[in-house]
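Q: Convert this sequence to structure tokens.
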Amino acid sequence: MPKRRMKRIAVALLASCLCLAADVTGKWSGTLEFRGGGPPTPSVVLLKQDGQKVTGTGGPSDADQQPLEDGKIEGDKLTFRFQGVQVTLTVSGDRMEGEFSARRSEGPPMVAKLALKRAGDAPPVKNPFDTAEDAAKGRQYFLGHCAFCHGPAGEGGRGVNLTTGRYRHGGSDAELFRTIRRGVPGTEMPGSGLSENEVWRIAAYVRRLGAAGAAEKATGDLAAGRAVYQGKGGCAQCHVAQGSGGNLGPDLSEIGLRRSLQFLRESLTKPESVIADNHRTVTVVTRGGEQIAGIRLNEDDYSVQLRDTREQLRSFRKTAVREVKAESRSLMPAYGELLSARELDDLVAYLNSLRGTDEKKP
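A:
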């Protein structure tokens, strides 16, 4: 057989093996039994798989975990190092097992059998870590793992606002645990590699965020706010909401889920205080002195592309213009000067009601 054809077959076989690699992400529990006697030792392994790479921790319990090293999955073979010992396990559905030996300075090596079963991830109904101290620890985990998207105080941003006490995937202890642990498929919300105890403590903190924010109610009139939005405020010219509107500004279809009442008010009265990276203002000054302002879409050393205030796409060579200015201002007007206090309250109430597919839910 020609070498080139053999190489193609080998590559195809390798690709086939990679496609059939077992999925080991999740919690596995079982026993570690040493040859020569002694009672079985409980074992808990928490794994996260990314292609062939496997990371995670292992130990005798959820609370006592140490990191795994050099984790790798090939077909049904999982290998990793744990505390200096090389471990090889064969994965079969929801079970995996293997035998390994650890050398000792004196005497024969310790030979052990590790047998694990995928643990069910249905959490208990009541959070077992729900004290004020647990929530304080949960806040630290939250700041390290969740605040980038949800804001340091859960006020929302890239992720949803967590201070409302209303969540799309449920706000019970078990539902919060499941959402944090698994993530939300099809969204930017990933699953968590934290231990069960850490996830429970984050859930305790999130519940407290929701309880504090649930008491906060919009004081304005929703119907009047909709009229301001579509009329005097001119918001629909630049923003999409409920399936219609302009594209110059951010989509507001679920802004009520993502932002707190305080943030909504500040964004109306001080729009330059927080500007999303993908809605930065840029002004191009032509050689004739004309100034074209818009939202920067792309910029490199040679050109800049923007969407102007009439939503026209514009592209300029930097060598053909006088100046390209990155602005700190927002194209959105400061509504504190355009609307009355009552109209602002009404507009905030309307924006707070925009919750995407959940707008009509209580």
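Residues 21-118 form a domain with the Lipocalin fold (CATH 2.40.128.20).
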